From TrEMBL:
It catalyses: a 5'-end NAD(+)-phospho-ribonucleoside in mRNA + H2O = a 5'-end phospho-adenosine-phospho-ribonucleoside in mRNA + beta-nicotinamide D-ribonucleotide + 2 H(+). InterPro entries: NAD-cap_RNA_hydrolase_NudC, NADH_PPase-like_N, NudC-like_C, NUDIX_hydrolase-like_dom_sf, NUDIX_hydrolase_CS, NUDIX_hydrolase_dom, Znr_NADH_PPase. This is NAD(+) diphosphatase. Its EC number is 3.6.1.22. The lineage of its organism: Bacteria, Pseudomonadati, Pseudomonadota, Alphaproteobacteria, Caulobacterales. Transmembrane segments: none annotated.
Length: 305
């Protein structure tokens, strides 16, 4: 891929056609080289290396000696089974079982300090554990559900309903106006962001919508602009907790933008030169979203195309 956003590029074979086989999955757990990532409340355990930090990989046996019944199967890495185990609770495990092994970091920091492949695996892990934590009971009958397929499915023992991890699609778009003296892009600001921070517009897709329709609706709702054309840019898994960000460039009919004061408190129009200054951190007033966010890449693509 020409552009690979943070949390994408996962190198694992997720073995979706095999992990439903209980015997096969048991064989992976017994594999002598099986390894595991350790996380605490969604934070991966990392250790320093020469060029930054990397995930701490333990043997699965070692990991299961520390954490029982809190594991899941991530996939195969060059035929080696890869699992994850999770600590829960408010007490940092580096003060106990993980003492001296490294530190637990938030996933947004992981996107900066880890390799792309490891950040993607950490995102997959957080997404699966978050889903399991939120879906312990059957939505059909209310009974407690049980883990299956190595953590990729939950089954209700009472009514046999199967439940699978959710991914919520979100359109995230950079409105651009090509009229006037020179092209400009629109950024919006939410009230709770740090001073100066602006970003692309975004919103969840609704039932019965196409990507293009969701993009047009959100731009109209948040900024009062009519979308006349939509161009796909890229997508990004966003594990906060489980979105798929669908990145778009949205051409609008005019520049009469009005923030809705609910989602956005302010909007700004930027020329390409101004957008470049925002991206480089040299603009006197406005700040760009962080480079690991797809919004940053949307702005960069437009600013330098």
């Amino acid at each position: 891929m020409v552009l690979q956003n943070a949390f994408s590029g996962n190198p694992l074979d997720r073995a979706g056609d095999l992990r439903n086989d209980f015997a096969w999955l048991g064989a992976q757990r017994d594999h002598p080289d099986a390894m595991a990532m350790v996380v605490w409340e969604g934070r991966p355990l990392v250790e320093p290396v020469a060029n930054g930090e990397q995930i701490v990989w333990l043997s699965l046996k070692h990991a299961l000696d520390m954490v029982r019944d809190r594991d899941l199967f991530l996939g195969l890495w060059k035929d080696v089974p890869v699992f994850a185990v999770e600590f829960e609770g408010s007490i940092d495990p580096t003060h106990g079982p993980c003492h001296g092994m490294g530190r637990f970091i938030e996933l947004r920091e992981a996107a900066v300090v880890l390799s792309g492949a490891e950040a993607a695996m950490a995102g997959e892990t957080k997404g699966l554990f978050d889903w399991r934590r939120r879906h312990g009971f059957c939505a059909a009958c209310g009974q407690a559900s049980e883990q299956a397929s190595g953590g990729w499915k939950r089954v209700c023992p009472s009514c046999q309903t199967e439940h699978f991890p959710r991914v919520d699609p979100v359109t995230i778009m950079l409105p651009v106006y090509n009229g006037g003296d020179e092209p400009r892009c629109l950024l919006g600001r939410q009230a709770h962001w740090e001073e100066g921070r602006h970003s692309a517009l975004a919103g969840f897709m609704e039932p019965g919508e196409t990507i293009e329709e969701a993009c047009a609706r959100e731009v109209k709702e948040e900024a009062g602009l009519r979308v006349v054309d939509v161009r796909y840019h890229s997508s990004q898994p966003w594990p906060f907790p489980a979105q798929l960000m669908i990145g778009l460039i949205a051409e609008v009919a005019d520049d009469n933008a009005t923030p809705d004061q609910t989602e956005l408190e302010a909007v700004i129009w930027l020329t390409r030169k101004e957008a470049q200054a925002v991206l480089s951190g040299t603009h006197a007033t406005f700040k760009a979203p962080p480079p690991y966010a797809i919004a940053h890449q949307l702005i960069r693509t437009w600013a330098y195309e």
